[in-house]
Amino acid sequence: MKFPFSKSSMSDIKRDEDFLNYPVIYILNGEKEAYIGETVHFKNRMNAHLKTRRNVDYINLIKHEAFNRSATFHLETKLINYFLGDETYTLQNKSKTANDFTHNYYDKPYYDGEVFEELWQKLLQQKLVTHTLTQIENKDIFKISPFKELTLEQIDLKEKVLDFCEQQIPKEHQTYGSLLVIEGEAGVGKSVVLSSIFNTLQERASEGSSKLHRTENYLVVNHEEMFKTYKDIARQVKHLKAKNFDKPTPLINRLHRENKKVDIILVDEAHLLLTKSDTYNNFKQDNQLEELLKLAKVVVVIYDRDQVLKLKSLWGATTLDSLKEKSAHHAHYALTNQFRMQADKAVMTWIADFIAKEVKPLPQNTNYDLQAFATLEEMHQAIKAKNEKYGLSRVVSTFDYLHKKDGGTYYVKESNGTYQMPWNTTSPKYTWAEKPETIAEAGSIYTIQGFDLNYVGVVLGPSIRYKDGKLVIDTDRYMDKGAYTGADGIADVAEAKERIVLNSINILMKRGIKGLYIYASDEALRNQLLQAKQ
Asked: Residues in domain Schlafen group 3-like DNA/RNA helicase (predicted)?
């Protein structure tokens, strides 16, 4: 049902309408903005909205004979997330409180599946939305939406972070602010939690009654593709501003130039922060996290020591511990539950063993699709087939092939044939995996870190070999020369270089939600994987 957003519309509703005292969902929309809500007192709620809400022209009422309060709570949250991913409207919604999340209720799969699909089809027919559910589910903006329904573990962590911020902001800090570290390996939902935390921080910054009122806060990430996604989210959520998202070096340099200290800085992918000066990239100090601690009252970082990709970003436990000691106050939390990969323990153990340089037989009788391929062409064809069926399936490669930032086209090449694929292309506007044409390309660690794919095909290039029953890393053949700059002060450079390459393999192998396909350039490794496949 659709009404004009007006007092007269409310007056015209008859008292005996069945939706007046039952749970319903509604969408308020104008030309560019929308608000999604649920209520059991429809007229009262609309009259309240009429007093305060602007830039909306219509009320779209959604009712269903099977609705109950748990279902409408859940479907409201789900609609908000899908509207964000649809990108038709800028959302006026604010984040939910922990008490608003409904994790389990009777017949939840029915509402999650059949009811929501029916609802979305009607919204498509009415042109309130423009993308299918599958199209939205494959978007990066959807996957780290600040409105995502968090798990109990994630909610608990979010509340602890917000409490930490509220406790530390009023305190007098000297040279260094307070530091909170969140650790977790690839795929445990770190960015989702951080996105949700930042959204709530910015809401509270605008609320007069909040302890965080008028705080100046930033979310930074030293990763171009993730930065694009966060900027996209800012465009779709009314109270988020693009100016509050930045990369670490520009923010550090600006705050030093202005001789200014801000309130809270959240850092995603903190393992990509520099731990050495890098004059080429205009960072002249010694450690980016240390500089951020000098420039904010509170710094919250998301960190995974197994995702460091450059010597100049190499983090040791001693480095982090020393910064904790320097900080005014510190806390440390961990996320542990794997969300990305729909893989059982056998698959996760196989990957862990591989990163430990042991090539074990591929797990059998698992729902996760783990395969090795004899040629790059075969693997690419298999990935293309999965992309046709599920979308968001891509080939990626270790950084073992020549690439220059000169606008030229460079290739990942099959070692036992003539097949080749363009690789490591970038776009200033779109994230790599979301561009349809990249199904014909191979991505690099820098185009895919932090993102999900449905199926990933990993090319293990010439630096990864198999000899004497073990994986061997030939660091001299790894072509990411920027990864090896900044070796000064590292006790065992050879070991550190090997760790960089193994970290890159670990990240690439953990991109796929449904499956991991592997092609090895080295003949001995390829044969071992194919034997393991048997």
From this structure: 179-522
